[in-house]
Specification:
heterodimer, A: 324 residues, alpha/beta, five-stranded mixed beta sheet, four-stranded mixed beta sheet, B: 357 residues, two-stranded antiparallel ribbon, 8 strands, 45% helix, Pyruvate dehydrogenase (Acetyl-transferring) E1 component subunit alpha (chain B), oxidoreductase activity (chain B)
Chain lengths: 324, 357
């Protein structure tokens, strides 16, 4: 394990896993290539040596990986499986939707599924097809699942720790393109960031910008480019969402732009806009804009730059909203 | 209640051409000199395409690429047994199958350059686009094979997947449906010993992967996947069965001699000794030895074939690079639906405004 507290996101993942495995002997890591290989992004590197018998390479099968986690959790273990890429979580979606998310409600609270499913998501990594999806809205649409997306190394450690300790199933989506993008100081030892609480990355009074994961930096850059005085809200937990943070900010600014790289139709921005109209309708000075991926399959990398929202596209939306 | 045996199963294994290039005269399929040379040429072409692609990727000119180095016999031998009406349902490591079905080499490179144009299927080629979600395509092949049966057509479907895919529910469902519906389908499992870093023994306790057919009630057979003649013969036989509505699973035992993809480093999880062991079993080397012994090939012919492949690749690489500059992002809106719905029309217009600012 690294002694330095300046970590990248991928190293923060590793540190959180390691420290939680040290703290709680019931935490268990398994998945495709997570052992000897250390994970295809090296997020689990070294764990198999540090925690003999608690890190397992798995056969190739996502339904199996998720389904086994449900059983492992029933025996009192705390499974933290890795799904190699978020797009392959669809292969285990029925286990997630039909069992993991509702074990608590179906058993009237006698059983639960404290499983944390880690998975890298999102584009901008010049990947093969089916390696760039952002399906957070689909997971958030499943009652009983928590969905978390960090955007910084420090939050990665704190949120992953909270997710592992959470009594309910959590889909923990790691922004692939930020894995090695930058370092920042990460608190050593105990560091927990509560699920369900947004972070305010910038404060201002003319506009509210909401983003998460790899879009937070793009949104912040866009705000800097325009010089607009804006609150930049990093949602961090997609479900359950910190509605209050958004509503309070919109009541102050009267304007809002929501950014995500997933397709627009039925994306999380639609839900955010709905909550704003529910709770802050009379404060609005302009329509809430969505800056998102288009409603097309994520293109392969020769065209992904055109698909992914960037700071220019966000800046245009900011200017339109502020000038409305 | 007495106990009695109600069912017993055996799995056969076939090898015609051994590592030293010697054949079993009883089993060797009767192939014309032209066909033999063509098999050899396709295997060499596949090998060189992969080698050039890895080098291009290392120079940043291609994205992630999955080479089939070491698996040429399994791929070329099986595809050569097909009729043009038979469908091919590949995974993501079967570039040579597209080449054999008429996709020009520069398009293979385009796909690796992240261009959808690279996955365009030549008219009437009867091949599905690459399938990246492991094992998911096996069901499509069952669907095609069932469809052919329902339509009373003779054609079959063949699908390709690896050892890892046999752990996937989709693959078992494909085998089981195929048996239940008399689908005209052949399943070709290239057991290349690794699913990325996970060795075959971790994947399943089953002694063979061919026996995965047993539970589905269909025939399973193992073949030396580095023996192009054995693979050809086993596939020919499997296709005869499949055309009668009897699906077959073939396990071709082979070895992925290079990386899973260019993003992978095999030195982390396997030994040089093991790699050296499999180098001795290389499918091209042994086939070349055999063809020399049969006077089908000599130094001159081998050199001519090699030179022709090199110039073909040079041309393909130049053409691929030239086409890269013509990528129009608007294309992503074009093929999502048969007709552009209003919501996408609006988004397309939005995109054009952004682009032209």
């Amino acid at each position: 394990m690294s002694d330095s507290n300046e970590l990248r996101i991928v190293e923060a993942v590793r540190q959180a896993l390691h420290e939680e495995m040290v703290r709680d002997s019931e935490v268990l890591v398994y998945g495709e290539d997570v052992g000897i290989d250390g994970g295809v992004f090296r997020a689990t590197q070294g764990l198999i040596e540090d925690h003999p018998g608690r890190v397992h390479d798995s056969p190739l099968g996502e339904a199996g990986i998720i389904g086994l986690g449900i059983g492992l959790a029933a025996t009192g273990l705390k499974p933290v499986p890795e799904i190699q890429f978020q797009s392959f979580l669809y292969q285990g979606f029925h286990q997630l939707q039909q069992h993991a998310s509702r074990l608590r409600s179906r058993s009237r609270g006698t059983l639960s599924c404290p499983m944390t499913i880690r998975t890298p998501y999102g584009g901008g990594i010049r990947a093969l097809e089916h390696h760039s999806d952002s399906y957070e809205a689909g997971f958030a649409h499943v009652p009983g699942l928590k969905v978390v997306i960090p955007s910084t190394p420090s939050d990665t450690k704190g949120l992953l720790t909270a997710a592992i300790r959470d009594p309910d199933p959590v889909v923990f989506m790691e922004p692939t393109r930020l894995y090695r993008a930058f370092r920042e100081p990460v608190p050593e030892g105990e560091h927990v960031v509560s699920l369900g609480e947004a972070a305010i990355r910038r404060t201002g009074d003319e506009l509210t910008v909401v983003a998460w994961g790899s879009m937070v930096r793009e949104a912040t850059d866009a705000v800097d480019k325009t010089g607009v005085s804006a609150d930049v809200i990093d949602l961090r937990t997609i479900s359950p969402m910190d509605t209050d943070a958004i509503v309070e900010s919109v009541k102050k600014t009267g304007r809002c732009v929501v950014v995500h790289e997933a397709p627009r139709t039925a994306g999380m921005a639609a839900e955010i806009v709905a909550r704003i109209t529910d709770e802050a309708f009379l404060y609005l000075e302009a329509p809430v804009e969505r800056v998102t991926g288009y409603d097309v399959p994520v293109p392969m990398f020769a065209r992904e730059e055109a698909y992914l929202p960037n700071s220019d596209r966000i800046a245009t939306a900011i200017e339109r909203t502020v000038g409305f | 209640m007495p106990r009695s045996t109600v069912a017993e199963f055996t799995i056969e294994s076939v090898r015609i051409l051994d590592e030293k290039g010697a054949v079993d005269e009883e089993l060797v399929p009767s192939l014309s000199e032209e066909t033999l040379i063509d098999l050899y040429r396709q295997m060499r072409r596949s090998r060189r395409l992969d080698e050039r692609a890895i080098a291009l990727q290392r120079r940043g000119e291609l994205g992630t690429y999955a080479p089939a180095i070491g698996q040429e016999a399994a791929q070329v031998g099986s595809a050569a047994a097909l009729d043009t009406g038979d469908w091919i349902v590949p995974a993501f490591r079967e570039q040579v199958l597209y080449v054999m079905r008429g996709t020009p080499l520069h398009k293979i490179l385009w796909y690796a350059m992240g261009m959808e144009e690279g996955a365009e299927i030549p008219d009437g080629a009867n091949v599905m686009p690459p399938s990246i979600p492991v094992g998911s395509q096996a069901l499509h092949a069952t669907g095609i094979g069932w469809g052919k049966a329902l339509r009373g057509e003779q054609a079959a479907a063949i699908t390709y997947f690896g050892d890892g895919a046999t752990s996937h529910g989709d693959v078992y469902e494909a085998l089981n449906f195929a048996g239940a519906y008399d689908a005209q389908t052949v399943f070709l499992c290239q057991n290349n010993q690794y699913a990325i870093s996970t060795p075959r023994r971790v994947q399943s306790r089953a002694e063979t992967l061919a026996q995965k057919a047993v539970a589905a009630g269909i025939k399973g057979i193992q073949v030396d996947g580095n023996d192009v003649l054995g693979v050809y013969a086993a596939t020919t036989e499997a296709l005869e069965h499949a055309r009668q509505g009897n699906p077959v699973l073939i396990e071709a035992e082979t070895y992925r001699r290079s990386m899973h993809t260019t993003s992978d480093d095999p030195s982390v999880y396997r030994s040089d000794e093991e790699e050296a062991e499999w180098e001795k079993r290389d499918p091209i080397t042994r086939f070349e030895t055999y063809l020399r012994s049969e006077d089908v090939l000599d130094d001159d012919r081998i050199e001519d074939i090699g030179a022709a492949i090199e110039s073909e690749l040079e041309e393909a690489i130049a053409r691929a690079k030239a086409g890269q500059s013509e990528v129009d992002p608007v294309d992503m809106f074009r093929h999502t639906f048969a007709e552009l719905p209003p919501v996408l029309e609006q988004q397309l217009a939005e995109y054009k405004v952004m682009r032209d600012e």
